[in-house]
Write a structure and sequence with these properties.
Layout (H helix, E strand, L loop, with lengths): L5 E4 L2 E4 L5 E6 L4 H12 L5 E5 L9 H15 L3 E5 L14 H12 L6 E5 L7 H11 L2 E8 L6 H14 L3 E6 L4 H17 L4 E5 L5 H6 L7 E3 L13 H11 L2
Parallel strand pairs: 3-4, 3-10, 4-5, 5-6, 6-7, 7-8, 8-9
Antiparallel strand pairs: 1-2
Helix pairs in contact: 1-2, 2-3, 3-4, 5-6
Bound molecules: 1,3,4-trihydroxy-5-OXO-cyclohexanecarboxylic acid.
The site of 1,3,4-trihydroxy-5-OXO-cyclohexanecarboxylic acid has 17 residues, from β4, β7 and β8.
Pfam families: DHquinase_I
Family: Belongs to the type-I 3-dehydroquinase family.
Catalytic activity: 3-dehydroquinate = 3-dehydroshikimate + H2O
């Protein structure tokens, strides 16, 4: 059904023959909130924590971000930490960070030893995607190149193209989130996921957002998606359901 490409981070394996890793977002606006939130979410035992740093009020201050990342690491122990700055255009918060500031911050985080994975949007337009990716390779930080379409579900062909292009740039994993407007859109996303899992050499993460797309967050792994986003404390995108609900289903869908 799928390729055997796996990415291992700490004790989590991201691979199409496994259950989807459960990733829970943290949206605290400062270090104190973030730590409290992390403790609460950790009690629900997700595989991955995603620090959605676009919510962080001191994002322009590299030192504050590094300190918060370090504090987070000491609280979360061996749990995988994914760092994401989601742009407004792709469903994130508005930030005052310039592209150059963002690159400097990501560069510092990669060598900080605090984060395990980094989400970079395909559309980020960094002057040097390649340089960041090379540095991440050297430090063992896995790069997810992502793309969100909050308007629609593009055709299967277009979606596959996007994933393949991001694989070619050097992503360790590739991610797509789309907005469905019909059951057909949902089917098409799942079908595309299966094709991508078979034809790409890196693991894929996909989801359809909103109410119509909830099923993709539950059964996406049966079509080859290696990660699902679930609520520990607060949702970070439409259609996410609680960690407990995903875990309950995975008991029945996985060996
Ligand atoms: O890329 C994603 C996926 C997501 O948008 C979702 O739909 O669950 C949630 C975001 O926090 C994350 O960065």
């Amino acid at each position: 059904m799928s390729n055997n490409k796996e990415v291992c981070v700490r004790e989590v394996t991201f691979g199409a023959t496994h259950r989807a890793a459960i990733c829970s977002p943290l949206i605290g606006i400062n270090s104190t909130q973030l730590i409290e939130e992390a403790k609460l979410v950790l009690s629900k035992d997700p595989d991955v924590l995603e620090w959605r740093a676009d919510y962080f009020e001191s994002l322009e201050d590299v030192n504050e971000v590094l300190e918060a990342a370090d504090a987070l690491r000491s609280v979360i122990g061996n749990t995988v930490l994914l760092f994401t700055i989601r742009s407004m255009a792709e469903g994130g918060q508005s930030t005052t960070l310039s592209k150059a500031q963002q690159e400097t911050l990501l560069d510092a985080l990669i060598s900080s030893g605090s984060i395990d994975m980094l989400d970079i949007e395909q559309s980020a337009g960094f002057t040097s995607h390649t340089q960041l990716i090379e540095k991440a390779n050297r430090y063992g930080v896995k790069i997810i190149i992502s793309k969100h379409d909050f308007e629609k579900t593009p055709s299967k062909e277009e979606l596959l193209q996007i994933l393949k292009a991001n694989e070619a740039v050097g992503a360790d994993l590739v991610k797509l989130a789309v907005m469905p407007h019909s059951e057909q859109d949902v089917l098409s996303l799942l079908e595309m996921t299966q094709e991508a899992a078979m034809s790409l050499s890196v693991p894929v993460i996909t989801m359809a957002m909103g109410k119509l797309g909830v099923s993709t967050r539950i059964i996406g792994d049966q079509f080859g998606s290696v990660m699902t986003f679930a609520v520990g404390h607060q949702a970070s995108a439409p259609g996410q359901i609680p960690i407990e609900s995903i875990k309950n289903i995975q008991k029945y869908t996985q060996n």
